[in-house]
From TrEMBL:
Database matches in Gene3D superfamilies: Nucleotide-binding domain of ferredoxin-NADP reductase (FNR) module, Translation factors
CDD domains associated with the record: FNR_like_3 (cd06198)
Keyword terms of this UniProt record: 2Fe-2S, FAD, Flavoprotein, Iron, Iron-sulfur, Membrane, Metal-binding, Oxidoreductase, Transmembrane, Transmembrane helix
Membrane topology note: Multi-pass membrane protein
Gene Ontology MF terms: 2 iron, 2 sulfur cluster binding; flavin adenine dinucleotide binding; metal ion binding; oxidoreductase activity
Residues in FAD-binding FR-type domain copies: 220-320
UniProt xrefs under SUPFAM superfamilies: Ferredoxin reductase-like, C-terminal NADP-linked domain, Riboflavin synthase domain-like
Record-given protein name: Putative oxidoreductase
The UniProt record lists the keyword Coiled coil: no
Transmembrane segments: 21-41, 47-70, 91-112, 132-150, 162-182, 194-215
Length: 447
């Protein structure tokens, strides 16, 4: 196998390096500034108060970072990928939880020690002040959202319900900023600290508004997308064809996804990330979804001509990321949709192997299309059926190496349920496939 040196691939690698360098530089510079602000502010009345002040500074910065990770910044999305950004957003969310619990705990402890009063009495006294009360409300909302984001709780909620609850974080941001205005003494040391702090929040909020509201509104006004056809693929899977004006200007690529809304048919807050299930051709877009939540289950009832509001394209799960000429595509269940689109992309070449994992051939969505595309591309297609367990574990390292003996010389793209994706990635690493050749897409998205 030879390495891919296409100009587009080189440009994507360069943008990935730029994105990582920019993000690390942003983190290190801001952490240094936060630490300097803490030093300039001087010690609090006691050790507990000083710790509480420092944790408050870090909390405010991490909250701003949270906004930037989900602001749909092109430099981050194209260079890193929204899937990975969402993972980082989730972990920084847990950091916010600990900071939002520890910051007030140490602040109250500091005041209790200073006043020689009980902890409970000091807390009630402080909570009676409006700025502190707003901080308490923000803390309660964060605890609620994080509790519902824990995997055990998340499984019991529909995507639409979880997404709606997640929107409470915007209320947290508002409450947190107001709290900082009144209580953030370290932000007001001098004109430079004020300029820095409000510049940081202006940048974070501005990026969020631009990426999540202004740019999508402008794009949808330009493209005027509508439902052109609704095609049932099986009992619980449906494809929706969307047309519009000048769709080629979206510069969408096979493997990417959009956030789809159908405002004339469903509530505005009902939004789902669906991958393109066909390579974009500049004239139409196609999504294919399984009826899991309220939104996806209602797609088969969409009237022709329904207005479509789409945000995107997003994601770095594209052929521009590959480094080798040979490609291995692995799909699990409905995760076949971006895999099918990648197989249709003319840039994929002819050295392609496709592994499609399903319970039975009856569950193999778009199988006919995959077979036709594999025939046209000269690709090898393996449909792997049956329950996983015992002797039927195709993604164990030795079994995967048997199916694809030259797996280490290929770029692998895998999309499917989280357990399948994690198993495949673990096996690839066990087989010593370089990380730059592993491209995984998971079904998850932050609000």
């Amino acid at each position: 196998m030879i390495a891919v040196t296409h100009p587009q691939v080189i440009a994507v690698r360069r943008s990935a390096r730029v994105a990582h360098v920019a993000l690390w530089a942003f983190l290190l510079v801001n952490l240094a500034v936060v630490q300097a602000m803490y030093v300039l502010a001087g010690p609090a009345h006691n050790l507990a108060g000083s710790i509480g002040r420092l944790l408050g500074l870090y909390l405010a910065f991490v909250m701003a970072l949270q906004l930037l990770l989900v602001a749909r910044l092109p430099i981050l999305d194209r260079g890193i990928g929204m899937d990975r950004l969402t993972t980082w957003h989730r972990w920084t969310g847990f950091a916010v939880l600990w900071l939002v619990l520890l910051h007030p705990a140490f602040v109250v402890l500091g005041f209790a020690q200073q006043d020689r009063a009980s902890y409970a009495r000091t807390f009630l006294s402080l909570a009676g002040q409006l700025p502190v009360l707003l901080g308490v409300l923000a803390t309660c909302l964060i605890v609620l959202v994080v509790a519902l984001s824990v995997r055990a709780a998340r499984r019991r909620l529909s995507y639409e319900t979880w997404h709606a609850v997640h929107l409470l974080l915007y209320a947290v941001v508002v409450l947190g900023v107001i709290h900082q205005v009144y209580e953030g003494t370290a932000f007001k040391i001098n004109i430079w600290t004020q300029v820095y702090w409000w510049g940081l929040w202006t940048f974070a909020l501005g990026a969020l508004l631009a990426g999540r509201l202004i740019v999508p509104l402008a794009r949808n006004a330009r493209h005027r997308m509508r439902v052109a056809a609704v095609v049932p693929e099986s009992g619980d899977v449906v494809s929706v064809h969307v047309t519009g004006r000048h769709l080629e200007r979206l510069q969408a690529a096979a493997g990417q996804f959009f956030l789809w809304r159908f405002p004339e048919h469903q509530s505005w807050w009902q939004v789902n990330p669906f991958s393109l299930s066909a390579a974009p051709n500049g004239r139409s877009l196609r999504l294919t979804a399984k009826a899991i939540g309220t939104t996806s289950a209602g797609l088969r009832d969409l009237p022709i001509g329904t207005r479509v509001y789409a945000e995107g394209p997003y994601g770095a799960f594209t052929l521009a990321q590959r480094s080798r000429s040979g490609v291995l595509l692995i799909a699990g269940g409905i995760g076949v949709t971006p895999i099918r689109a990648l197989l249709e992309d003319p840039a994929i070449g002819s050295d392609v192997v496709v592994l499609y994992r399903v319970r039975s051939t009856a569950d193999a969505v778009l199988l006919g299309e995959l077979r036709n595309l594999a025939r046209v591309r000269g690709a090898r297609l393996h449909v792997l059926t049956g329950r996983t367990g015992g002797g039927n574990q195709p993604f164990q390292p030795e079994n995967l190496a048997t199916l694809v003996p030259d797996v280490t010389d290929r770029d692998t793209y895998v999309c499917g349920p989280a357990p399948l994706t994690r198993a495949v990635v673990a096996s690839l690493r066990s087989l010593r496939v370089p990380s730059r050749q592993i491209h995984a897409e998971l079904f998850r998205l932050a609000a």
